[in-house]
């Protein structure tokens, strides 16, 4: 005899809301739609989902943080390159001074 439920199971409904709020449902839907839209279906659908699920997990906050880090590192690199250039120029001046420290008369 089949068992029919009168309404949704409260625990199930709570879990569904939890998954929706956490973005899991949207991420899975996005990956599955991407798989569906593939002209040539991959041989291993599970591997496709695993690979693409990682990409979906990147939030805009992650991207913004990484972009800011790139900007900071580029500025630091430019500052260090300038400092390096100045130090090389100083070194060249010191290397061109006679060893006795005086000037030729």
Automatic annotation (TrEMBL):
Any Gene Ontology CC annotation: nucleus
Location in the cell: Nucleus
InterPro entries (UniProt xref): AMY1 (IPR026060)
Sorted UniProt keywords: Coiled coil, Nucleus
Sample GO molecular function, one term: transcription coactivator activity
Coiled coil: 56-97
Keyword match Ribonucleoprotein: no
Entries under PANTHER family matching the protein: ASSOCIATE OF C-MYC AMY-1 (PTHR13168), C-MYC-BINDING PROTEIN (PTHR13168:SF0)
Entry similarity comment: Belongs to the AMY1 family.
Protein name, per record: MYC binding protein
Gene transcribed to yield this protein: MYCBP
């Amino acid at each position: 005899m089949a068992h029919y439920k009168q309404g949704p199971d409260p625990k199930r409904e709570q879990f569904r809301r939890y998954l929706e709020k956490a973005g899991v449902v949207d991420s899975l839907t996005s990956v599955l739609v991407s798989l569906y839209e593939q002209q040539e279906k991959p041989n291993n659908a599970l591997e496709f989902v695993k690979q693409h699920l990682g990409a979906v997990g990147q939030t805009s906050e992650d991207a913004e943080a990484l972009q800011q880090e790139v900007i900071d590192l580029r500025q630091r690199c430019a500052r260090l390159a300038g400092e390096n250039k100045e130090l090389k120029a100083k070194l060249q001046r010191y290397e061109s001074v006679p060893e006795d420290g005086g000037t030729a008369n």
